[in-house]
């Protein structure tokens, strides 16, 4: 089953060439305990490493079960190490911080057998080597003999055909050594054990065959007839399993390691998390602010309005823009039948603005009107009124009274909120119908501000208007604008307004609802070359969004610097971990882990750090966000009375997910280089490192 043909191996050290193996040829059948005996440095370990496929750099060939090691590919060799060979070392090569169970399990993990089968097999194996009672003990608490027996159990885990034991008793005292040899002798009934020893006594006491070596050569092969052992060979049944460590196993191994080094893992994660927290906070603040300002804006601005101006004005200097005139009002109103009212700002010399209202005429006419204004709450500003022209479309909203008669300019409908403002405590809303309300028109001149500054009040004209109805509607038509035809007609009659002279840079058009006006705008926007439509709140919203985007980029830039530091930090920590776990890498390779599996272990470790730092970072940012939100609420309250509580810093779930993904990717990339180094490590060198 094992043929060794003309095996040669030499090491070059400078000019010198050391022949570690010099034309070694022999053949072995299964079910024997074969001892290779020779003085130190004669090439025994070199031979074992080649047989164990840890060293592929040799001349000649090794043929096992008809397969050549020389011709085998990487995959075959990984599978060979796991399924055909079991290694036992002089220095045990166990994972000392882990239990007996975990050490044996490790070999089984590589075969991907089920959890239940695995646990049973571990028990069986540890029972076989007489250590069932030590199953949960950490290996570094066991005696040397016990450790070697754990190593034997591990070597047996995947039912290998051949066990390679390099000085298995070398680190043990004579008595413990005997016990280990008894166990190996017992195992050799089922499978070939190739054991290296420098002790002829041990060889003679236990081996069926003794191969004597000297200076890389075999000098004699003796059948150890003295022992006169009757060979009773029990054939072993086994299934060949693919050499493959699941990603989950890699993660488990790394988690275990991260747990052992929890201080360092946590410190690295916290260090990395600061940058992540910065990013999370930048996103939280910018998106939270955008969102809460948007909701506040929506609470204040009627969403059923759209701003209209000339399309050609986009990107124009404010002084050069083309103004809308009366013809435009008519044209825009006819564009879509969803449009039912408009506000056209009145500007210019000698145009009186509808400004204040009161139920008492005297109040508005008072000499010291402007002084009274602030203290006198019977003088209200910004009347919400509706003219007959508008009412046509909102008849259903009338709660009290009626729509004014067509052509009647002295009657109008007020909004419910205005009605509630002027009503006296002992009055009912319906009592207002038919009452006169006095409205002040303040003459706007370009000097009005200056005049006020000189103590000369602007000219105030007071006119009575009759309340014909009260409507519950969201449409606000405040007094600084001419809203619809009623106003224009009224101004023409009362103030000689020349509507041909009306002009404004933009006007606001109302629709029935936010949805309907949005649909209208969408309908028109593509087909309109002349006018530009912009949802009223959207201008502000858009501005905030673009500002916040810039703020976000700025903040992210700062955080980006700390990310670079984080990458370096993870990289270094993984590199240190690789150095610390070099021996483990060797062990894993010897028991059949692929170099890819080694890579996975360290990538998994960086992944763990990445995820941990993401969680900590997001946690920190949520904590800070809460503080910010509470402070904002405490000092600013909400923007509008009916607007919801503002969460100016709020990380959207989607972005939290993205950060997690980002961290995972970032950490994996950071760990890639040291992981690659680990996977490329020479198993023999790695085993020597402790
Ligand atoms: P043994 O196990 O019988 O003591 P080894 O197989 O370890 O002997 O070594 C055989 C010879 O090869 C020795 O002379 C040793 O110094 C040399 N040797 C082993 N490994 C290396 C190596 N990596 N580089 C150079 N020389 C080596
Ligand atoms: Mg040796």
From TrEMBL:
<feature type="transmembrane region" description="Helical">
    <location>
        <begin position="266"/>
        <end position="285"/>
    </location>
</feature>
<dbReference type="Pfam" id="PF02687">
    <property type="entry name" value="FtsX"/>
</dbReference>
<dbReference type="GO" id="GO:0005524">
    <property type="term" value="F:ATP binding"/>
</dbReference>
<dbReference type="GO" id="GO:0022857">
    <property type="term" value="F:transmembrane transporter activity"/>
</dbReference>
<keyword id="KW-0472">Membrane</keyword>
<dbReference type="InterPro" id="IPR003439">
    <property type="entry name" value="ABC_transporter-like_ATP-bd"/>
</dbReference>
<feature type="transmembrane region" description="Helical">
    <location>
        <begin position="656"/>
        <end position="673"/>
    </location>
</feature>
<feature type="transmembrane region" description="Helical">
    <location>
        <begin position="598"/>
        <end position="624"/>
    </location>
</feature>
<feature type="domain" description="ABC transporter">
    <location>
        <begin position="2"/>
        <end position="240"/>
    </location>
</feature>
<dbReference type="InterPro" id="IPR017911">
    <property type="entry name" value="MacB-like_ATP-bd"/>
</dbReference>
<dbReference type="Pfam" id="PF00005">
    <property type="entry name" value="ABC_tran"/>
</dbReference>
<keyword id="KW-1133">Transmembrane helix</keyword>
<protein>
    <submittedName>
        <fullName>ABC-type lipoprotein export system, ATPase component</fullName>
    </submittedName>
</protein>
<keyword id="KW-0449">Lipoprotein</keyword>
<dbReference type="InterPro" id="IPR027417">
    <property type="entry name" value="P-loop_NTPase"/>
</dbReference>
<keyword id="KW-0812">Transmembrane</keyword>
<keyword id="KW-0547">Nucleotide-binding</keyword>
<comment type="similarity">
    <text>Belongs to the ABC transporter superfamily. Macrolide exporter (TC 3.A.1.122) family.</text>
</comment>
<dbReference type="InterPro" id="IPR003593">
    <property type="entry name" value="AAA+_ATPase"/>
</dbReference>
<keyword id="KW-1003">Cell membrane</keyword>
<feature type="transmembrane region" description="Helical">
    <location>
        <begin position="553"/>
        <end position="578"/>
    </location>
</feature>
<dbReference type="GO" id="GO:0005886">
    <property type="term" value="C:plasma membrane"/>
</dbReference>
<keyword id="KW-0067">ATP-binding</keyword>
<dbReference type="InterPro" id="IPR003838">
    <property type="entry name" value="ABC3_permease_C"/>
</dbReference>
<keyword id="KW-0813">Transport</keyword>
<dbReference type="GO" id="GO:0016887">
    <property type="term" value="F:ATP hydrolysis activity"/>
</dbReference>
<dbReference type="InterPro" id="IPR017871">
    <property type="entry name" value="ABC_transporter-like_CS"/>
</dbReference>
<dbReference type="GO" id="GO:0098796">
    <property type="term" value="C:membrane protein complex"/>
</dbReference>
């Amino acid at each position: 089953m094992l043929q060794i043909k003309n095996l040669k191996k030499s090491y070059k050290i400078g000019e010198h060439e050391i022949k570690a193996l010099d034309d070694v040829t022999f053949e072995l059948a299964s079910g024997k305990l074969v001892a290779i005996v020779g003085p130190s440095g004669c090439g025994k370990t070199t031979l074992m490493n080649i047989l164990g496929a840890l060293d592929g750099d040799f001349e000649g060939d090794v043929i096992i079960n008809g397969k050549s090691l020389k011709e085998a590919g990487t995959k075959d060799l990984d599978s060979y190490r796991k399924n055909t060979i079991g290694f036992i070392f002089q220095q045990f090569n166990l994972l000392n911080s882990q239990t007996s169970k975990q050490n044996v399990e490790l070999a089984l993990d590589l075969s991907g057998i089920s959890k239940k089968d695995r646990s049973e097999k571990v028990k069986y194996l540890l029972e076989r080597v007489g250590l069932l009672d030590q199953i949960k003990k950490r290996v570094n608490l066991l005696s040397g003999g016990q450790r070697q027996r754990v190593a034997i159990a591990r070597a047996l885990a995947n039912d290998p055909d051949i066990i390679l034991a390099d000085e298995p008793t070398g680190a043990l005292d004579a008595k413990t050594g005997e016990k280990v040899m008894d166990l190996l002798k017992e195992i050799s009934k089922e499978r070939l054990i190739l054991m290296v020893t420098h002790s002829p006594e041990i060889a003679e006491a236990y081996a069926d065959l003794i191969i004597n070596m000297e200076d890389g050569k075999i000098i004699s092969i003796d059948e150890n007839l003295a022992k006169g052992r009757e060979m009773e060979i029990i054939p072993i049944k086994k299934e060949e399993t693919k050499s493959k460590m699941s990603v989950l196993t890699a993660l488990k191994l790394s988690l275990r390691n991260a747990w052992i080094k929890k201080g360092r893992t946590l410190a690295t994660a916290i260090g990395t998390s600061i940058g992540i927290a910065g990013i999370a906070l930048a996103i939280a603040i910018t998106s939270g602010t955008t969102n809460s300002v948007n909701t506040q804006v929506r609470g204040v601005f009627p969403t059923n309005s759209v701003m209209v101006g000339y399309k050609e004005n986009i990107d124009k200097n404010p002084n050069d823009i083309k103004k809308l005139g009366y013809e435009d009002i008519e044209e825009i109103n006819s564009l879509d039948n969803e449009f039912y009212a408009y506000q056209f700002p009145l500007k210019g010399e000698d145009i009186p603005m509808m400004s204040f209202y009161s139920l008492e005429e005297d109040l508005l006419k008072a000499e010291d009107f402007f002084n009274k204004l602030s203290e006198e709450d019977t003088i209200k500003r910004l009347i919400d009124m509706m003219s007959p022209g508008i009412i046509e479309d909102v008849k259903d909203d009338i709660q009290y009274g009626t729509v004014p008669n067509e052509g009647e300019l002295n009657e109008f409908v007020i909004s419910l909120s205005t009605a509630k403002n002027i009503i006296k405590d002992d009055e009912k809303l319906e009592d207002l119908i038919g009452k006169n309300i006095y409205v002040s028109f303040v003459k706007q001149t370009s000097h009005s501000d200056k005049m006020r500054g000189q103590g000369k009040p602007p000219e105030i004209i007071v006119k009575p208007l009759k309340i014909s109805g009260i409507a519950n509607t969201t449409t606000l038509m405040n007094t600084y604008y001419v809203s619809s035809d009623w106003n224009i007609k009224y101004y023409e009659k009362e103030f000689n307004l020349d509507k041909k002279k009306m002009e404004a840079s933009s006007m606001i058009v109302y629709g029935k609802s936010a949805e309907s006006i949005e649909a209208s705008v969408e309908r028109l926007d593509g087909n309109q070359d002349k006018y530009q439509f912009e949802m009223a709140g959207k201008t502000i919203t858009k501005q905030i969004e673009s500002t916040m985007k810039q703020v976000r980029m700025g903040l992210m830039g700062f955080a980006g610097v700390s990310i670079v530091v984080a990458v370096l930090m993870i990289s270094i920590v993984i590199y240190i971990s690789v150095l610390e776990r070099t021996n483990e890498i060797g062990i894993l390779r010897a028991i059949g882990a692929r170099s890819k599996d080694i890579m996975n272990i360290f990538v998994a470790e960086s992944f763990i750090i990445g995820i941990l730092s993401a969680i900590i970072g997001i946690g920190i940012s949520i904590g800070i966000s809460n503080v910010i939100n509470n402070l904002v609420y405490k000092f600013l309250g909400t923007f509008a009375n009916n607007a919801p509580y503002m969460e100016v810093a709020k990380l959207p779930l989607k972005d939290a997910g993205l950060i997690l993904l980002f961290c995972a990717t970032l950490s994996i990339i950071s760990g890639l280089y040291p992981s690659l180094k680990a996977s490329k490590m020479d198993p023999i060198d790695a085993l020597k490192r402790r």
